């Protein structure tokens, strides 16, 4: 049983702690426990717990509290009592070793008694005391006495921690305690004895830079909070660390002090103005503290994978006291990739092995590497990996945490080596703007979002843009953004005297690692306009592929290389700058004739599909804008007739159809002329421009008659019939619709249904009911063949209209409408 005064006041019995949550009740127990087996008067108890203004009922309340505490103690251990003593006081009858604060003092006294125990036993007592003294005293208890008690215990605790860690260092346990000391100093940041011990431990662990940083942080804090400089002893220690004084090592360790100083710290310098990545950093935090031992940061080149890994590594040096190792595997580099044997040699050298100690055989070197890293707390960054096979031999032993970066998805590491995949995408618009603001002191908050968008929110491009602006006295964000918008963005996003620091050079490294078939597909996609690509469209422009499976393999290779992204099921897109790069590559790797052929295939594929799906709508509008001057652009515009029929964007489609009409006339393409006139008429009809629709419909009939194509002429008649019928000429409308129906092949069930339905409405309105009956049967037949629910509804509406014209009651309407 233990009465706990450190933390929340509690009575800890065999069944666990009973926390005294009522502050006054906790204060009474704490007051009695502060002087066990010694009487404390009622007056003193009241002053301690209630201060100078106790309630009138304080004696009654105190008596109630004593009764409650007696019950709690009796349940924990019957031998513990609170006794009433003469003079209106109380005594807690409990041994001192049953109260945590007194037990701590007893342990410290035994450990520091020069005639007492040996060093090992003393350290064990001090460690036990530190475990008990793991926080402030009397948490939640207020009042002057409680505050004084807390303050006094805090001083005792600093002394205890100082004595314990001084002895730990004296026996050479600096590597074991350095992280614990760092955590303590985070909360006791002006306790100079602990600061000195932490600096000494870090120095002995071969981390003098961290020790100097601790001193500098403490110096600033002491000046800000206390208006004082560090003490003379702390300043002397700082100077000795700067001088790399070997005498700071224990005598027994000085012979190996050089190895202690060589704890690897190979990470490159942290990135200036690192911004964002909160989610990715938190994921790495979680993984590093779990059983996971391998994280893979994957993404397109220039997205900041290396910067993320290095930044996280610097921020977590304390978590890995055995060091940080970094190897650039050059998987995507102008030079050849680093072989596993080369990489193992570098890794083992970083761990202190000399050349003669490192086996020549990769398998044996790998065994030695895993043995040397087993149960050590190392972080290993394997940067710029090409593939899983390059990484696998370099994974360290248990206890280490490895971060791999790659442009490849490294699926093999996920499947076989339990790698946790972290997809690193571009920055958000807000993060990109923040990065530009941090990089450029005189940033323009209005221009920054536009510049970020033109850089595609890609960190590499953002940093290049910032560097170009900073180097030119006359440049600013707005002007540079205008240049990017009006000129070759990829050419501008480069550093003149550093050809490797460009977006193009970065993407070149990914492109040249692709198989030839994937390179060819990448260039083809760079030729195509639009926002994204469906898998079906990619197949249509991949005529050299033997099968759909081969097309899928090429697509997957581009996705794996992060040059293509599957943003919806079987729909793919490129990052803005990747798309510009692909377009540039296509002009290099494809002839002009090949690009023209590919554009024609793109136009034909959309035309043959007939209607634009919702997923393709934005895509087609964007593509029409790009191919605005193409003589066959009408084949891309025509599928938008479904958009117009649905009542969407009639103004926009009419404008595009007008341009398609001009291009078709210039090319002498009569079919294109007819299609664009017909689409213009449909758009005019949806706009409510009846006169315009009728005029265009007449033109469509004239052009269709020249084509000697009954289907096209029938559709021209039918559409014009609907146009003039809407304008009120029902007889003329019926005549044209009858012509259309007579000319249309019976396979054109949808058009037949539409025209029969329109004709029926006209015939009923002009009271040509016998003809209407005949066409109702034809409508039923075409609807039966099509099976479309909307067409079946047209039958019902027509039956109802015909029945009403004949004066038949609605209860006698035909079965189709009652359904």
Mind explaining what this structure looks like?
The protein is of the alpha/beta class and 819 residues long. The chain contains 40 helices and 14 strands. The strands form four sheets. A five-stranded parallel beta sheet has the order 8-9-10-7-11, sandwiched between helices. The radius of gyration is 41 Å and the shape is elongated. The relative contact order is 0.03.
Draw up the topology in text.
Blueprint: E1 2-4, E2 10-13, E3 16-19, H1 23-34, E4 40-41, H2 42-50, H3 58-76, E5 81-85, E6 89-93, H4 100-112, H5 119-132, H6 144-170, H7 174-187, H8 192-204, H9 208-226, H10 232-242, H11 257-261, H12 278-288, E7 294-298, H13 305-315, E8 324-328, H14 340-350, H15 362-373, E9 379-385, H16 388-391, E10 401-406, H17 411-417, E11 420-423, H18 429-439, H19 448-454, H20 459-471, H21 477-486, H22 489-492, H23 503-511, H24 516-527, E12 533-534, H25 535-540, H26 548-560, E13 565-568, E14 571-573, H27 576-589, H28 592-609, H29 614-626, H30 634-637, H31 641-645, H32 650-666, H33 670-687, H34 690-707, H35 710-726, H36 730-743, H37 749-765, H38 769-786, H39 789-805, H40 815-818
Parallel strand pairs: 7-10, 7-11, 8-9, 9-10
Antiparallel strand pairs: 1-2, 2-3, 4-6, 5-6, 12-14, 13-14
Helix pairs in contact: 1-2, 4-5, 5-6, 6-8, 7-8, 8-9, 8-10, 9-10, 14-15, 18-19, 18-20, 19-21, 24-26, 24-27, 32-33, 33-34, 33-35, 34-35, 35-36, 35-37, 36-37, 37-38, 37-39, 38-39
Short summary:
By secondary structure, the protein is of the alpha/beta class.
């Amino acid at each position: 049983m233990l009465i706990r005064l450190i933390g929340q006041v509690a009575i800890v019995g065999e069944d666990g702690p009973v926390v005294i949550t009522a502050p006054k009740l906790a204060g009474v127990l704490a007051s009695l426990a502060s002087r066990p087996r010694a009487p404390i008067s009622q007056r003193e108890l009241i002053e301690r717990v209630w201060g100078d203004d106790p309630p009138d009922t304080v004696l009654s309340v105190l008596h109630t509290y004593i009764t409650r505490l007696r019950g709690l103690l009796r349940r924990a251990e019957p031998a513990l009592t609170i006794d009433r003593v003469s003079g209106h006081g109380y005594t807690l009858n409990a041994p001192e070793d049953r109260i945590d604060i007194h037990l701590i003092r007893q342990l410290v006294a035994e450990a520091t008694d020069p005639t007492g125990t040996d060093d090992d036993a003393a350290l064990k007592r001090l460690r036990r005391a530190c475990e008990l003294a793991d926080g402030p005293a009397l948490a939640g208890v207020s009042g002057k006495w409680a505050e004084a008690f807390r303050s006094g215990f805090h001083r005792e605790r600093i002394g205890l921690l100082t004595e314990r860690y001084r002895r730990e260092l004296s026996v050479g346990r600096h590597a074991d305690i350095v992280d614990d000391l760092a955590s303590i100093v985070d909360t006791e940041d002006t306790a100079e004895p602990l600061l000195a011990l932490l600096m000494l431990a870090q120095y002995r662990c071969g981390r003098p830079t961290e020790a100097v940083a601790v001193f500098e942080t403490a110096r600033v804090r002491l000046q800000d909070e206390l208006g004082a400089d560090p003490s003379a002893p702390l300043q002397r220690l700082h100077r000795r660390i700067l001088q790399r004084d070997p005498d700071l090592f224990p005598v027994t360790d000085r012979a190996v002090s050089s190895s202690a100083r060589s704890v690897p710290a190979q990470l490159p310098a942290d990135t200036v103005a690192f911004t964002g990545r909160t989610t990715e950093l938190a994921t790495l935090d979680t993984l590093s503290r779990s059983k996971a031992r391998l994280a893979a940061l994957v993404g397109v080149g220039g997205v900041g994978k290396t910067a993320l890994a290095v930044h996280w590594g610097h921020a977590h040096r304390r978590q890995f006291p055995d060091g940080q190792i970094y190897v650039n595997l050059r998987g995507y580099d102008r030079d050849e990739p680093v072989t596993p044997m080369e990489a193992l040699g570098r890794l083992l050298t970083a761990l202190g092995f000399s050349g003669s100690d490192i086996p020549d055989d990769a398998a044996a070197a790998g065994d030695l590497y895993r043995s040397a890293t087993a149960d050590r707390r190392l972080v290993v960054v394997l940067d710029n990996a090409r593939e899983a096979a390059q990484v696998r031999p370099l994974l360290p032993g248990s206890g280490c945490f490895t971060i791999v970066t790659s442009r490849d998805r490294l699926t093999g590491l996920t499947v076989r080596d339990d790698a946790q995949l972290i997809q690193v995408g571009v920055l958000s618009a807000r993060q990109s703007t923040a990065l530009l603001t941090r990089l450029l002191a005189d940033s323009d908050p209005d221009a920054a979002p536009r510049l970020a968008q033109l850089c595609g929110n890609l960190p590499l491009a953002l940093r290049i843009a910032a560097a170009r602006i900073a180097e030119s006295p006359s440049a600013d964000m707005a002007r540079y953004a205008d240049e990017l918008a009006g000129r070759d963005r990829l050419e501008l996003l480069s550093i003149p005297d550093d050809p490797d620091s460009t977006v193009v050079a970065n993407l070149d490294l990914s492109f040249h690692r692709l198989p030839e078939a994937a390179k060819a597909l990448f260039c083809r996609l760079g030729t195509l306009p639009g926002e994204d690509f469906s898998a079906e469209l990619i197949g249509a422009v991949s005529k050299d592929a033997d099968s759909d499976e081969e097309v899928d393999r090429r697509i997957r290779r581009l996705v794996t290389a992060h040059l293509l992204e599957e943003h919806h099921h079987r729909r793919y897109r490129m990052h803005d700058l990747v798309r510009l790069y692909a377009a540039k590559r296509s002009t290099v790797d494809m002839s002009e004739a090949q690009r023209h052929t590919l554009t024609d295939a793109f136009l034909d594929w959309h035309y043959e599909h007939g209607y634009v799906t919702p997923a393709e709508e934005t895509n087609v509008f964007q593509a029409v804008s790009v191919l605005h001057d193409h003589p066959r652009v009408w084949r891309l515009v025509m599928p938008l007739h479904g958009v117009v029929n649905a009542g969407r964007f009639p103004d926009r489609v009419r404008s595009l159809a007008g341009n398609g009409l001009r291009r078709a006339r210039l090319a002498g393409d009569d079919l294109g002329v007819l299609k664009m006139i017909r689409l213009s008429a449909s758009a005019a009809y949806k706009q409510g421009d009846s006169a315009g629709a009728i005029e265009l419909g007449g033109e469509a009939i004239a052009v269709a008659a020249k084509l000697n194509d009954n289907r096209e002429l029938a559709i021209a008649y039918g559409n014009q019939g609907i146009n003039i019928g809407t304008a009120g000429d029902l007889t003329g409308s019926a005549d044209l619709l009858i012509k259309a129906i007579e000319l249309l092949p019976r396979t054109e069930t949808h058009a037949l249904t539409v025209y029969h339905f329109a004709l029926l409405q006209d015939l009923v309105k002009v009271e040509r009911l016998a003809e209407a009956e005949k066409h109702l049967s034809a409508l039923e037949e075409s609807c039966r063949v099509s099976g479309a629910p909307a067409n079946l509804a047209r039958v019902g509406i027509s039956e109802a209209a015909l029945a009403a014209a004949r004066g038949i009651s609605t209860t006698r309407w035909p079965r189709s409408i009652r359904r």
